[in-house]
Design brief:
Layout (H helix, E strand, L loop, with lengths): L3 H6 L5 H7 L25 H9 L13 H14 L3 E5 L2 H12 L5 E5 L4 H11 L5 E5 L4 H7 L4 E7 L11 H10 L3 E5 L4 H4 L9 E5 L13 E5 L1 H14 L5 H12 L1 H20 L4 E5 L9 H7 L6 E6 L3 H10 L4 E2 L9 E3 L11 H7 L5 E5 L5 H13 L3
Parallel strand pairs: 2-3, 2-4, 4-5, 5-6, 10-11
Antiparallel strand pairs: 1-7, 6-7, 8-9, 9-12, 11-12
Helix pairs in contact: 2-4, 4-11, 5-6, 5-10, 14-16
The structure holds pyridoxal-5'-phosphate.
């Protein structure tokens, strides 16, 4: 259990301190590192204690689908970083989004969602929530007028992911928060790409943040997990869904993510700095038609990103001159970057969105989303930026 005096000393502490210190679950053994509680159930002090814990009138754990001290430590640390009252850890990022929707929506509700969200999020809304009577309208990320026009009397949730993948468009979170307040709906923000190290949506008026912890919160590509952050009242609802339906985070994964958070800001700063350098260099290359990164001064989302983010993150994309053949040539000629669709790893990844992450979209949908055949996405890792530049140079040289 966390020592109250240590916890109180953290009141008002800065993000770097919270990332290392919040959510300490130290036991009587006095261990310095966070303990890993690999246990499915817990022993009670007496029959009366068992009854009280089951009734919820006494503190303490009952079963790890309900609570686990390592998972709780991760939840407390992430909540502190996001500036939320509470967090709930889930088995994956999709479990975080599903749990939020199942807990807070009901049949007959309507959701307005930005068009460029993670592909599986679109499938969750259209294949499953739709089946249970929750309707969704997709709108362009940037157009607040279209968001406003899409809101109906039965709209209960606005769902947005910013910056967008892979073109790094930036949504106005304060503006969307106002729309949510005006329509008495909840604003849910997928904060996977920025993480609380770069962007804290709750401070801009959002009600809920969802995460795929699989990406930058882990940061080293080891575990799948997710989380939901928000007010204590809303998180209580999400927690009841989780306890009942079961997509909880394992203690081991929580321990990995807990340690991942300690280095989150340092990593995000390094990802952002290298991505900016690469974006600037790519722009000088004759074989490149266009570079998309909100850190570039002439990116349409630059001014807004500067206001609402602390840096611009690790993901960038660019169009090579030509089409699919040229994009594939560049990708296949790189030797350091991993050809994988994942992101948020210490290892840089490179991918051709049109035939992988966005391959299930129709040609018209891809066209509308700007996912052309000559587009390449790079999620910049923690290698030396000069080596990454050499690698892309190798890729571009294949075109000559
Ligand atoms: C990966 C991802 C998800 C889904 O997370 P999983 O952990 O893979 O379930 C959701 N949103 C975004 C933005 C993602 O990148």
């Amino acid at each position: 259990m966390s020592d109250d005096s240590e916890f109180n000393a953290l009141h008002g502490a800065r993000l770097d301190t919270l990332a290392v210190r919040a959510g300490i679950a130290r036991t009587a053994e006095g261990e310095h590192a966070e303990p890993l509680f690999l246990t499915s159930s817990y022993v009670f002090d007496s029959a009366a204690d068992a009854a009280a814990r089951f009734a919820g009138t006494a503190p303490g754990n009952v079963y790890s689908r309900y609570t686990n001290p390592t998972v709780r430590a991760f939840e407390q640390r992430l909540a502190a970083l996001e500036g939320g009252e509470a967090a709930v850890a889930t088995a994956s990022g999709m479990a975080a989004i599903l749990s939020t929707c199942m807990a807070l929506l009901k049949s007959g509700d309507h959701v307005v969602c930005s068009r460029d969200v993670f592909g599986t999020t679109v499938s969750l809304f259209t294949r499953y929530l739709d089946k249970f009577g929750v309707a969704v309208t997709f709108v362009p990320l940037l157009d607040l007028d279209q968001w406003r026009a899409a809101i109906r009397p039965d709209t209960a949730m606005l769902f947005v992911e910013t910056p967008s993948n892979p073109l790094c468009e930036v949504a106005d979170l304060a503006g969307l928060s106002q729309l949510a307040r005006d329509s008495a709906s909840l604003l849910v923000v997928d904060n996977c790409f920025c993480t609380p190290a770069l962007q804290t949506p709750l401070a801009l008026g959002a009600d809920i943040v969802v995460h795929s912890a699989t990406k930058y919160l882990d940061g080293q590509g080891r575990c799948v997990g997710g989380a939901v952050v928000g007010s204590r009242a809303l998180m209580e609802e999400v927690m009841v869904f989780l306890r009942t339906c079961g997509p909880t985070m394992s203690a081991f994964n929580a321990w990995v993510f807990l340690k991942g958070l300690e280095t989150l800001r340092l990593r995000m700063d390094a990802h952002s700095q290298s991505a900016l350098e690469l974006a600037r260099w790519l722009r000088t290359q004759p074989a490149i038609e266009q570079v998309y990164y909100a850190g570039l001064e002439d990116h349409p989302g630059h001014a807004l990103a500067r206001r609402q983010q602390r840096a611009y993150g690790g993901v960038l994309s660019f169009r090579v001159r030509g089409g699919r053949e040229q994009a594939w040539q560049v990708i296949d000629a790189t030797r350091i970057m991993s050809l994988t669709a994942n992101l948020g790893d210490a290892k840089t990844t490179i991918v051709h969105p049109a035939t992988t992450t966005h391959g299930r979209l129709s040609a018209a949908e891809r066209e509308r989303a700007g996912i052309t055949e000559n587009l390449i996405r790079v999620a910049v890792g923690l290698e030396h930026v000069a080596d990454l530049q050499d690698d892309l140079q190798r890729g571009l040289a294949a075109l000559a």
